[in-house]
Design brief:
By secondary structure, the chain is mainly α. It has two domains: 60-179, no CATH class; 184-284. The protein has helices at 2-16, 29-43, 52-70, 74-85, 92-105, 107-119, 125-138, 140-153, 163-177, 181-191, 198-208, 214-225, 231-245, 249-265, 269-282. The termini are far apart. The model is unreliable at 1-24 (pLDDT under 50).
């Protein structure tokens, strides 16, 4: 199990260490190569038999190196890109780490590679997912161009990363580009399609909380009363409605009446109790 969890833990840590806007730096080529060697070493996990102290030291070192690499500059980005091209036989976690280092520090030059990886059938889906995640952060227009036709087509004829990740990347890129109504309509359409992947629908419902207005409110209401029996999906809809009410005065005005209306007609006792809890918390 640990063998499968480590790549995910590595990616989570790398993402957590990458908050904030990058600032361009000038790095000598020799120093760039050294930083990439440090990253490669940090990406190698601690032995499975290592005690907690060793594991903790490894986590701290990984975070330190990842944080430094995030804003290291174009020379480090180029060194990461060069190293990535030599890494076909390396573990997935290492390839993803190199790809992200290149993308953050050399976004324009790395974008074509990220697109090619994302579109390449047969490439590891974990790497393809990392590529589109990177594009959504560093080249959001490219990410929208690639993702929107896929999620609008609903049932693409080829294999892509999980719907949840695609919708999440679309939502992130759409916010960066301030697409507004266009993104709201795309996400609403996806959220209300009963035949789509449920994890993708959940992500669309979460993302809609960033788009105040009657259209979002009606979309969330539609999901809230749907008869699919997916309690989790409906709970997320309630959560997004509550979040929406915090920034949308009209939703705030009707929130309690809407939840009370659904609660009085609800046949699922567990979900009914959840709605009662929401009313007690937000509608006193």
């Amino acid at each position: 199990m640990q063998r499968y969890l480590l790549p995910s833990i590595l990616l989570i840590l790398l993402l957590a260490a990458c908050n904030g806007e990058p600032q361009a730096k000038t790095t000598a080529p020799n120093d760039a190569d050294r930083q990439i060697r440090d990253l490669v070493a940090a990406l190698a996990p601690a032995p499975a038999s290592a005690n907690s102290a060793v594991q903790n030291d490894w986590f701290n070192r990984f975070r330190e190196v990842s944080d430094r690499i995030r804003t290291a500059g174009p020379a480090v980005g180029q060194a990461a890109l060069d190293k990535f091209h030599e890494s076909d036989d390396e573990p997935l976690a290492m390839r993803r780490g190199l790809l992200r280092a290149a993308g953050y520090n050399l976004p324009v030059e790395t974008a074509p590679l990220l697109e090619a990886i994302f579109e390449q059938y047969g490439e590891d889906l974990g790497l393809r997912t990392a590529a589109i995640e990177m594009l959504s952060e560093t080249s959001p227009a490219d990410a929208i161009r690639l993702i929107q036709p896929i999620i609008e087509k609903r049932r693409p004829g080829k294999t892509y990363p999980e719907a949840e990740r695609l919708v999440e990347c679309y939502a992130k890129a759409a916010l960066a580009l301030e697409l507004g109504k266009e993104a709201q309509l795309v996400l609403s359409s996806y959220a209300t399609d009963l035949f789509l992947d449920q994890t993708g629908r959940v992500m669309a419902i979460k993302a809609l909380a960033d788009y105040p207005g009657s259209h979002t409110r009606e979309t969330l209401r539609t999901v809230l009363v749907e008869s699919t029996g997916n309690g989790y999906l409906r709970r997320i809809s309630v959560k997004s409605l509550v979040k929406l009410a915090e920034v949308d005065p009209e939703t705030n005005t009707v929130l309690c009446d809407l939840i009370n209306e659904v609660m009085t007609k609800e046949v699922d006792l567990n979900f009914q109790q959840h709605l009662i809890n929401i009313l007690e918390k937000h509608c006193q």
